[in-house]
């Protein structure tokens, strides 16, 4: 066949060849491939199977896989004289009968060279590092960026899958390994995983790993994977903050209204199914109007102190939420009205140490008023119980009592 652009093919810096698909014969080789063998005084291979050092490898089968998109490049061990080189062969169809193959030698891949290109800028700006994993020999090569990300020297970076896994947080390791195993098993092109990895100072950071099949063997099995990891700790911290905001009140740290409704509904369902008592308490932190004229910061400090004071008094199964600026809602599962009154009375009798804290923060247990409602007498839904408890607390404020019971 006539080779398109013969001069360009001949002077390609990358070793390249043209092969006949059906026979596997190498019908042309460029100067770089010829020199690869001449430099060690060896004869160049003349067939595909001898080139890749695999008598069972059929070029026609591999081309079919390339056409289907199952294979992009082949990992091979080239025998060059008395040396065996780890290399990748990329295949491009020239016509129905011939392919162009070009060889990249990755046995001693120097990531520092790659990072001295635009890739270095991309990696640096995204706090990312590049790595390559040769599966058969279980050899991992890392870039200097990974060493920097892990806070260690290049020699201390992981050099095997086991070494890498030793750094992954034990809670994240099973999912991370499962993702990679599925990638290899199903011969996928890409995968992505997020996990925590230990740095040189024994602190963990969150990273996102993106891996890509770099080369495959003649059967289409994944042979080498190349990928990046990048530090996503700031992003994870933001996500956690947003989740927390969606569940907890920022000032007091208690559940907010939306989260409380979910928990309250669940407990009400249990009380209904198990025929157990349940009491709801509406707590007004400013029944005497002592907070209304305070500056905002001083008022917030008093609300925070009062809320935390009450939180420390309740039991583990009780649920406390902030539902308005100076209003709390307390659900007491498996608690009768009589037992609820005993618990509420503990709020109104602080110890000397608790009293000092309250007074220092301009909070007062004497400023509290609590309205109580029970299920099912005062309501069969959360909304009905809350309305009854609210009516009770309003009655208590008007009459000047600390504990008021729904009628």
Automatic annotation (TrEMBL):
Gene3D superfamilies: 3.30.70.270, PAS domain. Residues 276-407 form the GGDEF domain. Transmembrane segments: none annotated. Residues 115-187 form the PAS domain. InterPro entries: Biofilm_reg_signaling, GGDEF_dom, Nucleotide_cyclase, PAC, PAS, PAS-assoc_C, PAS-like_dom_sf, PAS_fold_3. Residues 191-244 form the PAC domain. Coiled coil: none annotated. PANTHER family: BIOFILM ARCHITECTURE MAINTENANCE PROTEIN MBAA (PTHR44757:SF2), DIGUANYLATE CYCLASE DGCP (PTHR44757). This is PAS domain S-box-containing protein/diguanylate cyclase (GGDEF)-like protein. It comes from Marinomonas communis.
